[in-house]
Write a structure and sequence with these properties.
Blueprint lengths: L5 H4 L1 H7 L27 H9 L5 H11 L2 H11 L3 H5 L5 H12 L3
Length: 110
């Protein structure tokens, strides 16, 4: 089944291909030959506004929050409490949670 949003299918791949410190904000950055701006999967403009209102202004800060909470269920609850959409966070193929978990596995192998 084709996605209604074709650029979302490659969002996780593009997110994983770039160093997180190269993403200075949530609005998307054109990087390394990717056609579409690279964004954190599951984080659109509304979610970016909610995160920025909560003091999380960069993907690196979001990763830090994920690591500092150290409990995925509590992290998801926190994100939902500040206004993010739970299904976008939990999507098993291209959600925020799988992206952050994958980025941690990439940064801290083994």
């Amino acid at each position: 089944m084709a996605s209604k949003h074709p650029n979302r299918a490659g969002t996780l791949v593009s997110f994983m291909s770039v160093s997180i410190e190269c993403l200075p904000h949530f609005r998307g950055v054109v990087w390394g030959g990717f056609e579409k701006p690279i964004r954190v999967p599951g984080i659109g403009d509304v979610a970016a506004d909610a995160l920025e209102n909560a003091g999380i202004n960069t993907p690196l800060q979001l990763l830090g929050k994920y690591l500092s909470i150290a409990d995925e269920e509590f992290f998801v609850s926190w994100l939902v409490s500040i206004g993010l959409t739970e299904w976008r966070i939990r999507d098993p193929e291209k959600g925020t949670l799988v992206a952050l978990r994958s980025k941690c596995e990439q940064l801290f192998p083994g």
